[in-house]
Amino acid sequence: MSDGSELQIFRDYLKKRGLRYTREREQIIREIFATHEHFDVDSLYLKMRQKGMNVSKASIYRLIPLLIETELVREVFFEDGHMHYEHVYGHEHHCHLRCLECRKIEEFTDPRLAEVEKDLAERFGYHVLDHRLDVRGLCPECRTKYLYKK
Amino acid sequence: MSDGSELQIFRDYLKKRGLRYTREREQIIREIFATHEHFDVDSLYLKMRQKGMNVSKASIYRLIPLLIETELVREVFFEDGHMHYEHVYGHEHHCHLRCLECRKIEEFTDPRLAEVEKDLAERFGYHVLDHRLDVRGLCPECRTKYLYKK
DNA sequence: AATGAAATTGAGTTTGTTTTCCATTACAGA
DNA sequence: TCTGTAATGGAAAACAAACTCAATTTCATT
C-alpha cells in the first residue's frame, strides 16, 4: 500500500519545526495510509482502539493540522456533523462525484480544472494553492429508485 | 435589493407542504435577502437580536433546510467550525475563489464547469444536481505580504 | 369573528464534535 | 545521562447543531 515515505516527509517536517516524532503519531499515520479509503476522526479512533492501540482522540485531532500542512492529508468534505479526510500523498489530485442518496463516492480528474485555476490566477491576480470540486447528484441505481418513488 | 419574490416562492412551498408562514420566518428570510453577503447562523442571529427582533437560533436552524430545499439558499463552505451560507435566488450559479489569509471571497462562473458536469453525468451515469467549486489561494495583497514574511 | 387541529415558537437541554487543560511521559540535543 | 520542552491520555470545556416541551400562533373551516 505504502512504502513509508510519507513517514519520512513527516519526520522532515517535524524536524524543521522542532516538533517531535512519537510512537502515537507514527501509528496514526500508518493507519491513515494503510488503506485508500476516506476517513473521519471517530472511525479512525475506533479502528485503532480495536487493534489495541492506546491513542486518544485528542492526539488524532492534534495531528491532523500537521498532516494537512505537509500536504499528506486533505479535508474532503463536511458531512453528518463532522469533517471527512483523505490521504493525498501517492494520489493524483482529484475531485469527487457523490451520490446524495447512497453516499457512494467516485473520484475523477479533469484537465479543464487546471485551466480554470490558471485563468483565475490571471484574472484576479491570486496565487492559487488548491481547489476542491464537489459534484453532487444521484448515482445510476439511486436515480432509478428515486424516480420510482416520485 | 430584493423585490420580495423569494418570499412568495417560500410561501408557495409552505402551502404545498402544509407548513405555516410565520412572522419569524419572514423576518429571517428578509434579513438573509437584505444583503448579498454570505452569512452563518450565529452572525445572522446576532444581527437580528441587535435590531430588536426576538427570534431564537432554533428557528434559524429549523428554517435553513427549508430554504435549501426551495433553492433559495445554498451551503457555501464549512469554516471555523460551522457552515456558511449564501442566498441563491436572484444570483447566477457561481463558484468561489477565496483568500486563505484575509478571507476575501471572489465569485466567478466558468462555462467549462457545465461541460465537466455533463461529461461526468455521461461517464458515470449520474443525474448531476449541483456542483461546488472552492478555489483557494492568496489574493494579490496577501500574496505580497506572505512572500515578505518568508 | 370564532374555532380547533396542527405547526411553530423560544428557552432550555441534549448530543456529538473538536479544543483545551493538566499532570505525566517521552523525545532529542547537549 | 541530563534537561528543557513537546506530546500524551483522559477529563473537562467549548462549541455548533438538534431536540424537547409547554405555550403560542397560524389558518382553513365555520
CATH architecture of the largest domain in chain A: Orthogonal Bundle
Strand content of chain A: 15-25%
Distance between the termini of chain A: 44 Å
Estimated radius of gyration of chain A: 18 Å
Main β-sheet description of chain A? 3 strands, mixed
Under CATH, the topology of the largest domain in chain A can be stated as: Arc Repressor Mutant, subunit A
Class derived from helix and strand content of chain A: alpha+beta
- By CATH, the superfamily of the largest domain in chain A comes out as Winged helix-like DNA-binding domain superfamily/Winged helix DNA-binding domain
The ordered string of helix (H) and strand (E) elements of chain A is HHHHEEEEHEH
The number of domains of chain A: 2
Query: Which whole number gives the mean pLDDT of chain A?
Result: 94
At the first level of CATH, the class of the largest domain in chain A is Mainly Alpha
Give the quaternary arrangement of the chains: homodimer
The percent of residues in helical segments of chain A reads 40-55%
**Shape annotation of chain A:** flat
Greatest interface (CB-CB under 8 A), with counts per chain: A-B, 36 and 35 residues
